[in-house]
Amino acid sequence: MVASVLNLHHLARSGEGPVSLPGTELWLSTVATRQALMLEQSCWLTLLAGELIIDLPEGDFRVLKLHDFIVLQPGQYGLVPLEACVVLSSQLSLADRAAH
How far apart are CA 20 and CA 2, in angstroms? Predict the structure, then answer.
């Protein structure tokens, strides 16, 4: 069997919501608007396109740039994209959270 190649950026932008990567427990999401994110368990994410500000629970923030990686612990976060972002994460969905 010949392996298939997936373009993650195009795959994330092709759908209306989060996209599950075949054969993994990973998710691609496009984040285009400010969103609240409540995590019940730790989650990691990496930025594949765009630039994203993450408001941390302690009142601090982090700016993710292309290919940056972060691990978030359970808690309440704010996601503020500076442009439409593509995020690869270990959580089901970052994209179906309610907007602020």
Answer: 21
